[in-house]
């Protein structure tokens, strides 16, 4: 069992959860690192893209970039930006769902926010 200061000591915590959204089972994998967060979202075990975002003192909007995958798909980059703003951490996001419809993406993001509220220590 880990205490509240576990992340400060360099421990990595893992948190997995799933949700059925629009008849699709979506899996979420969260790795909380010392000063950053890695979030994988998908239906099958693939890593098709990866983006990162972080807050800076120069701009209220977190800076973000795609590291892997289709650079024209901004789904993971946008999600990383919003999560970086919410957590004030460096956030890596891999969004691996074929459905990038904005309504569906909003459902995914709302499910993540629900989990963050229920288990803040995991984020």
From TrEMBL:
Q: Which UniProt keywords apply?
A: Proteasome
Q: Which InterPro entries match?
A: PAC4 (IPR032157)
- Cellular component per GO? proteasome complex
UniProt-recorded Gene Ontology molecular function terms: protein-containing complex binding
> What is the name listed in the Swiss-Prot or TrEMBL entry for this protein?
Proteasome assembly chaperone 4 isoform X2
Please list the coiled coil stretches.
none
Q: Which organism is it from?
A: Delphinapterus leucas (Beluga whale)
> Some GO term, biological process aspect, for this entry: which one?
proteasome assembly
């Amino acid at each position: 069992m880990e205490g509240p200061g576990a992340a400060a000591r360099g421990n990595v915590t893992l948190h997995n959860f799933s949700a059925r959204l629009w008849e699709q089972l979506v899996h979420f994998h969260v790795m909380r690192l010392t000063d950053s967060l890695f979030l994988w979202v998908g239906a099958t075990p693939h890593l098709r893209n990866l983006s990162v975002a972080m807050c800076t003192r120069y701009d209220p909007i977190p800076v973000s970039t795609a590291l892997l995958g289709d650079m024209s798909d901004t789904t993971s980059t946008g999600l990383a930006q919003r999560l970086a703003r919410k957590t004030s951490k460096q956030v890596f996001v891999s969004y691996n769902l074929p459905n990038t419809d904005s309504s569906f993406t909003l459902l995914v993001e709302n499910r993540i926010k629900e989990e963050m509220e229920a288990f803040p220590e995991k984020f």
